[in-house]
Design a protein that fits this description.
Number of strands: 15
Helix content: 40-55%
Number of helices: 20
Distance between the termini: 27 Å
Structural class: alpha/beta
Shape: globular
Strand content: 5-15%
Strand order of the largest sheet: 2-1-3-4-5-6-7
Length: 502
Amino acid sequence: MTDVLFGQSYYLRFDPKLHKAMQPYPPLGTLFAAAVVRQAGYEVALFDAMLASSTAEWDAALEAYQPRVAVLYEDNFNYLSKMSLLRMREAAFAMIAAAKTVGCVVVVAGADMTDHPEKYLERGADIAILGEGEETLLDVLRALKAAPPPPAAPDIWAGIAGIAYRDAAGGVARTLPRPVLRDLDALPLPAWDLVDWARYKQAWHAAHGYFSVNMVTTRGCPFHCNWCAKPIWGQRYAVRSPQSVVDEMRWLRDHVGPDHIWFMDDIMGIQDKWIEQFADELDRQEVHIPFKSLNRVDLLLRGKTIPALARAGAKIVWVGAESGSQSVLDAMDKGTTVEQIYEATRQLHANGIQVAFFLQFGYPGEARADIERTLQMVRDLLPDDIGISVSYPLPGTPFYERVKLELGERANWVDSEDLAMLYKGPFTTAFYRHLHTVVHKEYRSLKTWAALRQGRRVGLRAIGSMLYHQATLPLARLKLAALERRPQPALAPVPASNVAGP
């Protein structure tokens, strides 16, 4: 019998857009928690939903490991966990039910559990961890050795910071919040040995011809973008030492053999000089693995940051460009300028680093002219990749407080391709979904045309795709103009059939 079976509810198969993209990564936050619990002397096992076909594989893991405690510990470094997609929430509910059926104590942790513990307690979870979870989970496991789960032993559970549970009256009791960890170097390495690496390598090589692994150098973000939810770390920010990060990279190189690293930090290299010290340490240990990271354009423009990223092996840097309209950036409290986006892009390209833009449409007050400024920015800078979303109200943010009275019963997307306007935004859901199509048609054709002009080799399929997009783009723009004039309807509840569990 295993002490603790860890799992998480993000199933790539349940997210059609990202399943097609096939860039799977193990649940890093879950692996950190498993490592901490194992270091404390518990026998642990992992169920990894990322490449699982359905929740039936969770049922099989319960039967195989026969755990005393089942922990659904979501990967808090995966931004999709923060979005609390309905398809994954329903998967979590199914997993809770299966664990209770075989007699497990069930503990849940993650962004959605922190925002809505009552939903998970109603479905049978015994304890919901609120916020950062490693130390809290250890306290919960120690308490379970001495007492049954809540609502029994109320004095014991009330003394554990950072949890929610059902009290004797059936209500939801919440304890005092727990301070976040400050010394990240004191954490053990993630429990990498629990990962089925062969399955990941096969998926990556089949889809892309190389193999990528995920890491983090930080936790949290101190900036104040007013649409960005921070249910786990709040405004607090902690950073690993460059030596700790490079030590882990060396371990992964020697034991796992990745061709590429994705640093999943909200923002990598906030501290001045950290990127330079990181590049120095990589040189010292002779560890060089190409990577992608997420950075802010204003921080990139500090003296030696971009050259240091190039020296460290940055292949592509994603930036939260969001909009080509300064008025929209200011409304978001983004703290950056359009000019900084242009200059950071130029400097990254000049140093041989690709750049990709996150673009966000639909923020309150955004007009059609603001959208055109964003499209012009993409035309001018022609980033190496783009990701498109619409503004998404998440609990705990000023943006959510501003629009919460406009929200219908539906407050989450079903999957990452949903792109539904959850509040009464500037235009309709149909407009933004079609805008996604228009932007990609224009962007993909421009990218291919630029490659041809530069004399780079371009496949026949890419040329055919460019010709198709160029031929259909005028009609697509006419449709967008028609959708622009369509009035915003009242928000309707999501149909029950769209959120059915797996």
